[in-house]
TrEMBL record:
Residue stretches making up the DUF5611 domain: 1-117
This protein's name: DUF5611 domain-containing protein
Region (Disordered): 104-127
Superkingdom: Archaea
Organism lineage string: Archaea, Methanobacteriati, Methanobacteriota, Stenosarchaea group, Halobacteria
InterPro entries from the UniProt entry: DUF5611
Amino acid sequence: MKEYKMRRGEYLEERIPDLESTVEDYFGPITGTQEYKGSELFCIEEPANPVFEKIVVGAVEYSGKKDKLGVEFHERDPTELGPDELEAAADAVDAKNDFLLEATGRDAKSRRDSMKRKVEDDGDHDF
């Protein structure tokens, strides 16, 4: 599960007031929920795009801190995809990036840089 934070001064519930319908618009009908760190996340068992096997997404709530967006994309093995499904791969990448940009206000480069900083920060502990 990857967790994404919003831009400084922004909140997930302000960026996407109706997360449930936004998730359905991007990925297909929600079929259930899954617990993650005490938060209930939406589960899409049969995403609209055939490249995805399953998607888990939702607000991860932290007391005293801003909520983060938790997302886990389960993708099918590319070697198992037929020619029509391979064409859907570009749409899958676009859907992921567009959704994450709308939710976090950060483009792919900004999200990557943020993840790199987090890994570097996690490695700066003296033992």
